[in-house]
């Protein structure tokens, strides 16, 4: 997929045209500390509900992604590859060239009302984070949540962004009329590791405060413990302290996921590893010799350890106080390829 599939806006600059082809975008920068060095490409998308190719392998079939690229800048982010579909750089470009589908709320409202839409579950935050910093300025999610609430359309959100708390009222309103699943991603609590590998994200403790707030206000929230990073966050005492902190936050579930390194993410992660932990490069090359995933034995070991710890600390679906209509988001996994646009109009 290329840019021309996404845009109908006629306003463009020469630089944009060079980047994205004849049909282009409005490009903005903001001279505030949190957005310094970030370029926003505002587009008017043609479609906003995406069907996930090979959805049978995914726990969800339909997604909505109002942004492309992510200033949270996680070194391991599997979505880096998707920036190459727009001829954008998958390294720093993914962290700093952010595509904003400015018409996402109105488009979603229209597509949800289409006779061809049958009210299936919609997953958000499955490609890039819908509560990344840009959302503080563009405020697309309130309109999206309002549209979903008004159609009583079930949905789930996965995020590392504390900004989700801004929309607490809307989430509660939606949960009164449909199924809402929320998960926060916290792979580890090691502060030193967080600063280098997830440099643009809120600290793990702040994310766990989000879980705590959601729990205290009656909205259950699961934690996706992802990624567990081999040799850097997988020691038994590290797993224990992470699961203990997750339990203390009131999470309704914990789902571990070991780091995977698909093309796009792999090169970026490995160059980071060579800079910060050069002694681990050889071990990684061996562990990921078969491809993007760590060996099954390793994944099973981590899963077992985390499940045992979760049981020990009392994390589970039987936690009291979770409204029927609110449950943790299904464990998200990477979309296998560029989602196709669903054309309803
Ligand atoms: S928050 Fe999620 S989407 Fe954003 S960079 Fe990190 S892993 Fe990628």
Strand-helix topology:
Elements: H1 14-20, E1 26-28, E2 39-43, E3 49-51, E4 62-64, E5 67-68, H2 80-84, H3 92-96, E6 97-101, H4 104-112, E7 122-124, H5 134-138, H6 141-150, E8 155-159, H7 168-177, E9 180-185, H8 191-197, H9 204-216, E10 222-228, H10 236-248, E11 254-258, H11 265-276, H12 281-287, H13 296-313, E12 326-327, E13 340-341
Parallel strand pairs: 2-6, 4-7, 7-8, 8-9, 9-10, 9-12, 10-11
Antiparallel strand pairs: 1-2, 3-4, 3-13, 5-6
The structure holds iron/sulfur cluster.
The site of iron/sulfur cluster has 11 residues, from loops.
| Average predicted confidence as pLDDT | 87
Distance between the termini: 19 Å
Q: Helix fraction?
A: 25-40%
Summed up, the helix count is 13
Radius of gyration: 20 Å
- Estimate what percentage of residues fall within beta strands: 5-15%
Class from helix and strand fractions: alpha/beta
Largest sheet properties: 9 strands, mixed
- Write the element-wise H/E pattern from the N-terminal end onward: HEEEEEHHEHEHHEHEHHEHEHHHEE
Question: Can you put this structure into words, describing what you see?
Answer:
- The chain has 345 residues and is of the alpha/beta class.
- The chain has helices at residues 14-20, 80-84, 92-96, 104-112, 134-138, 141-150, 168-177, 191-197, 204-216, 236-248, 265-276, 281-287, 296-313; strands at residues 26-28, 39-43, 49-51, 62-64, 67-68, 97-101, 122-124, 155-159, 180-185, 222-228, 254-258, 326-327, 340-341.
- Strands 3, 4, 7, 8, 9, 10, 11, 12 and 13 form a nine-stranded mixed β-sheet that branches. Strands 1-2-6-5 form a four-stranded mixed β-sheet.
- Helix 10 (236-248) links the parallel strand 10 (222-228) and strand 11.
- Helix 6 (141-150) runs parallel beside helix 7 (168-177) and helix 10 packs across helix 13.
- The longest helix has 18 residues, at 296-313.
- The protein starts with 13 loop residues before the first helix and ends with a strand.
- The chain binds iron/sulfur cluster (SF4).
């Amino acid at each position: 997929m290329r840019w021309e599939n996404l845009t109908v806006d006629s306003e463009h600059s020469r630089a944009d045209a060079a980047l994205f082809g004849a049909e282009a975008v409005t490009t903005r920068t903001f001279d505030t500390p949190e957005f310094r060095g970030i370029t926003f490409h505002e587009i008017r998308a043609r479609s906003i509900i995406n069907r996930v190719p090979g959805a049978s392998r995914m726990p969800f079939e339909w997604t909505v992604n109002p942004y492309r690229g992510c200033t949270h800048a996680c070194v391991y982010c599997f979505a880096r590859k998707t920036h190459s579909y727009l001829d954008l750089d998958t390294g720093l470009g993914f962290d700093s060239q952010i595509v904003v589908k400015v018409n996402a709320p109105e488009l979603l409202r229209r597509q949800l009302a289409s006779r061809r839409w049958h009210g299936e579950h919609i997953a958000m935050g499955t490609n890039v984070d819908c509560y990344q910093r840009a959302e503080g300025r563009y405020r697309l999610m309130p309109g999206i949540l309002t549209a979903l609430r008004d159609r009583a359309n079930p949905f789930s959100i996965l995020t590392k962004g504390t900004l989700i708390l801004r929309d607490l009222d809307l989430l509660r309103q939606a949960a009164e009329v449909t199924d809402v699943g929320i998960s926060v991603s916290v792979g580890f609590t090691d502060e030193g590791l967080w600063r280098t590998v997830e440099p643009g994200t809120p600290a793990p403790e702040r994310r766990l405060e989000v879980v705590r707030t959601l729990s205290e206000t009656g909205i259950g929230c699961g934690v996706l413990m992802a990624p567990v990073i081999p040799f850097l966050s997988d020691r038994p005492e590290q797993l224990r302290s992470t699961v203990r902190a997750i339990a203390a936050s009131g999470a309704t579930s914990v789902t571990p996921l070991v780091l995977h390194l698909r093309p796009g993410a792999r090169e970026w992660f490995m160059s980071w590893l060579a800079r910060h932990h050069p002694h681990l490069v050889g071990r990684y090359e061996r562990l990921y010799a078969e491809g993007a995933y760590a060996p099954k034995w390793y994944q099973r070991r981590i899963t077992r350890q985390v499940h045992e710890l979760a049981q020990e600390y009392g994390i589970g679906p039987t936690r009291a106080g979770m409204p029927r209509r609110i449950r943790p988001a299904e464990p998200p996994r990477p979309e296998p390829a560029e989602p196709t646009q669903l054309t309803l109009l």
